[in-house]
Design goal:
By secondary structure, the protein is an all-alpha fold. About 75% of the residues lie in helices and about 0% in strands. The chain contains five helices and no strands. It has helices spanning about 10-40, 45-75, 80-85, 100-125, 130-155. The longest helix has about 30 residues, at about 10-40. It is elongated, with a radius of gyration of 17 Å. InterPro entries: DPS_DNA-bd (IPR002177), DPS_DNA-bd_CS (IPR023188), Ferritin-like (IPR012347), Ferritin-like_SF (IPR009078), Ferritin_DPS_dom (IPR008331). It comes from Arenibacter algicola. Belongs to the Dps family. Pfam families: Ferritin.
């Protein structure tokens, strides 16, 4: 087994970089969706939701940077074109969403997809003894589960 300069198996690091690039592409689509609903939301809940969506897209933007930097730390190259993001993402596209419930449902669907990817990365990073990636995924998962719970509560729906 060949180790890289941070003490991780080179082969496992490459595999994790690939997985993280998939997460990066999906986060970029999620981020773009949040920007769109932030800009286009209408109705009586505009003021509350406009602020909440800005909070969420600011957080997503920070996570995008963290993911890209982790890919670099593992020796990979982060995806960085819209073409790459489209080809590698499964998060639904939210186009011209103006209604509050549609926007919240898009967030829940998107986070649910991100959580599936993050849990797979969590397992792979655990197997690779990659505490840096493991810790990042644990933090993301904890935050996003709470956001899903809150959004489902807002929709008056069960988890």
């Amino acid at each position: 087994m060949q180790l890289n300069s941070i003490g991780l198996d080179v082969t496992k690091s490459k595999s994790l970089s690939k997985d993280l690039n998939q997460l990066l592409a999906n986060f970029q689509r999620y981020y773009q969706n949040l920007r769109g609903i932030h800009w286009n939301i209408k109705g009586k809940r505009f003021f509350d939701l406009h602020v909440k969506f800005e909070e969420l897209y600011t957080d997503a933007n920070l996570k995008v940077d963290e993911i890209a930097e982790r890919i670099l730390t593992l020796g990979g190259v982060p995806l960085h074109t819209f073409e790459d993001y489209i080809e590698n993402s499964r998060v639904p596209v939210g186009k011209n969403i103006t209604k509050d419930e549609d926007a919240i449902r898009l967030i829940v669907e998107s986070l649910s997809e991100l959580l599936v990817i993050e849990r797979a990365i969590l397992d792979a990073s655990d197997e690779a003894s990659d505490e840096g990636t493991n810790s990042m995924m644990s933090e993301f998962i904890t935050q996003q589960e709470k956001t899903v719970w809150m959004m489902k509560a807002w929709l008056a729906e069960e988890i």
